[in-house]
Amino acid sequence: MSQPPYIRPEFERELPPLRNVAVETPLPWSQRIWNLAWLRKSLIVLLVLALWEVASRVQQNDLMLPGVLQTWHAFSEDMQNGELPEKIVNSLSILLKGYLIGSVLALVASALAVTTQFGRDLLSTLTAMLNPLPAIALLPLALLWFGLGNASLIFVLVHSVMWPIALNTWSGFSGVPETLRMAGRNYGLSGPRYVVTILIPASLPAILSGLKIGWAFAWRTLIAAELVFGASSGEGGLGWYIFQNRNELFTDRVFAGLVTVIAIGLLVEGVVFSSLERVTIKRWGMQR
Asked: What span, in angstroms and rounded, lies between the C-alpha atoms of 220 and 259?
């Protein structure tokens, strides 16, 4: 005759209530202020500006190194007379066209690579050939094929944007766990639906990283290209603004153009991409 299984007696231990103990301890105000990321970054910017002003006063040569105040005066003057806003609009309009076209082409190439063997061979071969090629080296061909104008700028922008975004997207697609892939296939997903509903959400951190790298490549390529033939369409952008003022020895305006380029880059990085990351991958717990 078998013995019945032993049943452990249930018991519950009452914990003494906490009395006169603060559940949350507020941080000191100095630490709360230091935890503000925008404040820390603003202090770094102020430190750089202070070093710039000190170096300018030590050198005492406005033609070689104008100070912060001279640069601010030139910046505010050109903003008020409308010259600098016009250059900013010209540069950003061309940049957005090239960036969007390059991003779409990169996404299509990555989707083709993840679904077919021919697409994988095509993407790996083309990225190995063309990604190391500097976009500025294609300027002569762009001039020959598209002539003087915005089409040449857009061509080199597409080249500078497409390959880094495609590489990061492909890397993100390759890192998607097999469990998610099997789940998608069990639901009968294939082709574009499989890419949109499974691969893109799962690899969004890598895609956003590629978009940020592509944006930086596109911005520096555009300024470099405009320095060479930015006024070919009769308008010109920020690069042409810098080059023209350098020829006329308006060094304070050259610095105003450079500061504008840096400020736009900081705004896009700190506002556009940070907001996009906050509402997607950080909210979903995919990135800290």
From this structure: 14
pLDDT tens-digit profile of 190-214?
Answer: 888 888 888 888 889 999 999 999 9
DSSP secondary structure code for residue 137 in this structure: G
Mean pLDDT of 65-84: 91
Tokens of residue 57, six digits: 């006063």
Residues present in the chain in total: 288
List the Cα angle 275/280/282 in 5-degree steps.
Answer: 85
What's the rounded Cα separation, in Å, for the pair 55 and 188? 65
| Contact predicate 98/218, CB 8 Å | yes
**What are the distances in angstroms from CA 231 to CA 113, 155, 236?**
39, 16, 4
Q: Residue 232 has what pLDDT?
A: 54
Classify 284 as helix, strand or coil.
coil
- Going by C-alpha positions, the residue among 246, 273, 270, 269 that lies closest to residue 258 is 246
CA dist 36 and 29 (Å) reads 11
Nearest to 237 by CA among 80, 139, 99, 95: 95
Give pLDDT tens digits for 13-48.
Answer: 888 777 777 767 778 888 888 888 888 888 999 999
Token duo for residue 261:
């380029």
Helices (H), the chain: 29-34, 37-59, 68-80, 83-115, 117-130, 139-146, 150-174, 178-186, 191-194, 200-202, 204-229, 238-247, 251-267, 274-279
The secondary structure of residue 135, as a DSSP letter, is G
Please state whether the predicted TM-score (pTM) of the whole model is above 0.85: no
Q: Give SS3 for 91.
A: helix
Place of tokens 């890419």: 195
Dist CA 70 CA 68 (whole Å): 6
How distant, in Å, are the alpha carbons of 34, 105, 106, 179, 246 from that of 134? 41, 18, 17, 39, 25
